Amino acid sequence: MKKQFKKKVAAVLALGALTASLFTGCGKKEEKKDATQASTTQAESSAEETEAVPVEKRKIVIATSGTGPEPFCYTDENGELTGYDIEVIKLVFEGLPQYDVEFATCEFQSIFTGIDTGIYQVGLNHLGYNTERGQKYLYTDTYDVGSHSIAVRKGYDEIKSVNDFGGHKTEVTAASANESLFLAYNDEHPDNPIDLTYIEVDNLLIDIANGAADFEYFTTATLETQIAEKGLEDQIDLIPVPIEESEEFTKSLKGIFYVVAKDDTQLADDINARIEELIADGSIAELRTKWFGDSADELTLEYVDRCKKFIEEDQAAAK
User: Fold this and answer.
1) Any bridge partners for residue 103, and if so which?
2) How far is it, in rounded angstroms, from Cα 40 to Cα 60?
3) Domain of residue 77, CATH code
4) What is the pLDDT along the chain (319 residues), one digit of tens a residue?
5) Which pLDDT score is estimated for 19?
6) DSSP-derived pairing of the beta strands 236-241 and 148-153
7) Residues 175 and 240 in one domain
8) Do residues 191 and 219 lie in contact, with contact meaning Cβ atoms separated by under 8 Å?
9) Within-domain flag for 262
């Protein structure tokens, strides 16, 4: 009897221990499950909070005079900035979501003083390259290359090429690419300089037509647009200048550039990467056809590289 009783007690105790063990195990599993769920919930909450925090964008103000030249950068009849240069920079920043972009119009020279003071971050005004400006600002990759022409009045045969400018009259605005070009020409030809008149309002084509000036040297697309707008087709002739001849004459490039502050290398690098991407995928070519027609000069990555090398070598020589 005693032995049987002891066996029953042992069995009951063993069953109790097993039951306790099962409940303890379940409890631990539940605790582990709860902890895992809590950890997952916290991770999801943290992820949601991270997604909810907006990425801070850098504000970029692009400055231009908004007064031309057409068809590159000008203000249309609705007061909106438009033109090839404007459309390219908009396309550039469409692929740079880290920037928040707006445009500002100002006097031409204020573009550069505004960059100097940090009011503006990008300068846009169909800007050619010159050594002096390259010492103060970073030039982006070129986004345009185009042939130049010489505008003269009908029947005026004293100018046939860029080598005939000496002794003839033209008009320039202060700090413009042509001012720098013609002043450099005059330094090299003191015995037969170009006769320069400074103006604030560009009426040069009209002055050529009426004989107050002899010539204008500028991009062909701009001259064609302005001649048509002013109804001067019967009064003005255009003499095409090959790109190679233009670059030899100017000792510079026929590319057109945006400028940024000298120390703003990240912004310049980002713009350059996008310009090269847009050239490679054909977007730049589409815009050039839209604004200049099927005869637009081709812009290639090889020419972009040539411009980069030219600017680097020119700036190194200027130091």
Assistant:
1) 62
2) 40
3) 3.40.190.10
4) 434 434 443 443 344 443 444 334 444 444 444 544 544 455 454 445 445 566 789 999 999 999 877 889 999 999 999 999 999 999 999 999 999 999 999 999 999 999 999 999 999 999 989 899 999 999 999 999 878 999 999 999 999 999 999 999 999 999 887 998 999 999 999 999 999 999 988 899 999 999 999 999 998 988 998 999 999 999 999 999 988 898 899 887 889 999 999 999 999 999 999 999 999 999 999 999 999 887 667 899 999 999 999 999 999 999 8
5) 41
6) antiparallel
7) yes
8) no
9) yes
- With b meaning 16 or more CB within 10 Å and e meaning fewer, what string describes 289-317? eebbeeebbebeeebbebbeebbeebeee
Cα–Cα distance for residue pair 254/32, rounded to 1 Å? 71
- Distance CA(214)–CA(205), nearest Å, equals 9
Domain that includes residue 64, residue range: 58-145+254-318
For residues 162 and 107, give the distance between their C-alpha atoms in angstroms, rounded to a whole number: 29
Q: How far apart are CA 217 and CA 168, in angstroms?
A: 12
The alpha carbon of residue 72 and the mean position of all alpha carbons in its chain are separated, in whole angstroms, by: 13
- Amino acid letter, residue 311: I
CA distance 114 to 230: 33
Residues 200, 258: one domain? no
Residues 141, 264, single domain; the answer is yes
**For residue 242, what are the CA distances in angstroms to 85, 162, 245?**
22, 10, 5
Instruction: Identify whether 40 is part of a domain.
Output: no
Is the C-alpha dihedral spanning 236, 143, 199, 251 positive or negative? negative
Both tokens assigned to 50: 């991270």
Query: What is the Cα–Cα distance from 231 to 235, expressed in whole angstroms?
Result: 9
